[in-house]
Amino acid sequence: MSARLLIGLGLSGLFVTAGLVSLLWTPHDVANLNIAAKFAPASAEYLLGTDHFGRDILSMIMVGARTSIAVALLAVGIGMLGGVPLGLLAAAARGSLLDDVVMRFNDMVFAFPALLIAIMITAIVGPSAVNAIVAIGIFNIPVFARLVRAGALPLWTLDFVLSARVSGKGAARISVQHILPNLTNLLIVQGTIQFSLGILAEAGLSFVGLGAQPPTASWGRMMAESQTMISFAPHLALIPGLAILLTVLGLNLTGDGLRDALDPKSRSGSQQGSGRAEL
Hints:
279 residues; MetI-like fold; 11 helices
């Protein structure tokens, strides 16, 4: 196991653990306001201090981790559920009108970033974490569709697929039984990357008020609320910002490590590169 993968798993695992623990316990209730204790410094009672409402920052970071992880995980799930079948369909119908329609649909979705999709949804039903999940999930669909199509096209020319076609299997059955299992590694790596991007997107949507709403804690909203106090209480913005940075860094390192571990070509290529450098 590479050092990158170990560091990535350690960083991302830290915040995943914090989010899971917050389901059962936090040092303080994030919904309780204690104005008398506002801007309290770090102490045994408040390990990271309190904010302008007297809420425990550590507890909010833990609950914010739960919010970000839940939104990003569900958004990646939506992206896979919608994108993988579309990618398999486009690859099976390569060169046909159906393939062209699917890919032009992906291009159309790509034209609307997650933030713009969230704004459109919010204009109809209002801001919420659910709307953030839907917006990020819709944006993930063409990502997985393009990935699956690009990975599946070369597989359709290989002998084991030709043998399956000769045996009488249809395109749908071949896609599910033979093509999809060979794309698992690609999906795992891309899913990890999209998971990190989902956390960034959730923070961005919450920052502009389109994500999780009070009293649910969110890293993005913590940063938004601290804007006017950054001159005398910079830790209110630095702590959630650092949480976002370390989580996304950990997930990206995990994705890179998984790619090296699951893709022999990538691993051998990097080893050859290091050998040339030594020469």
